[in-house]
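Bug #77: duplicate submission created two jobs. Keeping one. Sequence:
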Amino acid sequence: MPASIDSSHKSVLPRELRNASVWEQGEDLEALWSASTATHRLIAESYDGSLGIDAIILPLDEAFETRLDAARQFWRALNGRLPGGPVYGALPQQTKTRHILNLRAHDARRAAASYRTIAEVLLSRDPIVPRDWRDHHLRHKVRAVLRRADRLVAGGYRDLLFYPHSRRRKSDR
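Kept job's structure:
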C-alpha cells in the first residue's frame, strides 16, 4: 500500500492521538479515539509498531456507504473540521415524527383510550362529534397509525438500528 500513496499524505500515529486509548491485540493495534464530535474505533491490522495508519480499507458490502461516511467523519475529525452534513443513515425528521406519533398512539390504546379520543388528541385540533366519527377521515388514519405502531412494537423497531439498510432483503417482503 505505501508505494501507491502520494508523498503528501499524512500518516496517523495512533499512540500520538490526543484522548486515545491504544492497546495491542495479537498482531493488531486497536485504538479508541474520542474526538470532539464522536468516538472512533481504529484497528491497524498486522501492526509492526513503527508505522502509522496510512489508509482505510473498506469492504464493498451492504454497509459500504455507512463505513464510507464513518471514514469521512474520521478524516474530518483528524483535520480538526466539524462533522459536516447529516450523518449517513440518520433518520429523517419526518420519519422520527411519524414514529413518535405511532408510539404515542400505541401508548394511548394501551391506556384504554378510544380511537376517537386518540384521533382528537393526536391528530385533530377540534373535537370530533360522535355522530361524525363513523365516516370521519381521521378514523381511518388512526387505524393506520395503530397498525404501524403494532408492527414497530412487534419487532419492527429493530429495523431502525440498521437504517437505511433493512434486516430483511427486499425480495423477502
